[in-house]
């Protein structure tokens, strides 16, 4: 076996190892800037059928994703009402990502804060999985505009981060920012103390354009490391046309600035942002006729950029 073949066969986690924040970028175990590209699953309580090993394997092997996101739904029939059932779904995704050698974002998918429940949830994840460099903690998905950074979000993150660090002092944390994770410049101006925490930036190409990229630029100039844990090719409500031109502008921006990014979402919901069409198998290996326009746009980008996944 040639050296080139051996290198190509390495998984993303074997290649990059533990991730960390260095200045306003995320770097790997070698100190090299790293860009992860992948897919987010939909709210766990509503599309839990895709929370399984076969789907994660399809994303890793066929789509060439090097990161997946398990979106733990908190309210509306989610974790607060069914903690054991929702936890099992997320753990299946974590176990599958570890087996495939890719990264996994464990996301507290909520709009309103639940600091005690979130701290307990992440403490369990950190105790059970914190030894694995695959794990990335996303402590709060999309805080609403009414939740101020200094008064609500910063104390919330500090409480949850402390619960993680008690068991896992090392793995990367990504902290949600105000206004559906768009006010990254506000967080950058008053940063969290944890040295291995980046900040969540979300966008939907049909709604969020150059002004949001300008906010991201301001945040990075203030020294913040950003991570796009969720982006969509459509309007922010998940519908509307797939805005290919604006999506490509975002691709260029993220690649230029070394920002990791995950598309919303692996779901067969009847909306434009869903990567799959209604009735797509919960067992992965989707044929082209079950993948939406947005899904194909994203899959093509992952295959093109994540070249080391080819042939694995």
Supply the key terms.
312 residues; alpha/beta; TIM Barrel; eight-stranded parallel β-barrel; 11 helices; 10 strands; 38% helix; disordered N terminus
* Overall 3D shape: globular
Order of helix and strand elements from N to C terminus: HHEEEHEHEHEHEHHEHEHEH
| Rg computed from alpha carbons, rounded to a whole number of angstroms | 18 Å
- What fraction, in percent, of the residue positions are helical? 25-40%
CATH class: Alpha Beta
Mean pLDDT: 95
Distance between the termini: 14 Å
CATH fold-type name: TIM Barrel
User: With helices defined by DSSP (H or I, 4 residues minimum), what is the helix count?
Assistant: 11
Strand content: 15-25%
| Number of strand segments | 10
> How would you sum up the major sheet?
8 strands, parallel, barrel
Q: What is the CATH homology-level superfamily?
A: Glycosidases
The CATH level-2 architecture is identified as Alpha-Beta Barrel
Low-pLDDT windows of residues: 1-7
Strand order in space, largest sheet: 3-4-5-6-7-8-9-10
Q: Output the structural class.
A: alpha/beta
InterPro entries: GH (IPR017853), Glyco_hydro_5 (IPR001547), Glyco_hydro_5_CS (IPR018087)
Region (Disordered): 278-312
Protein name: Glycoside hydrolase family 5 protein
GO molecular function, one term: hydrolase activity, hydrolyzing O-glycosyl compounds
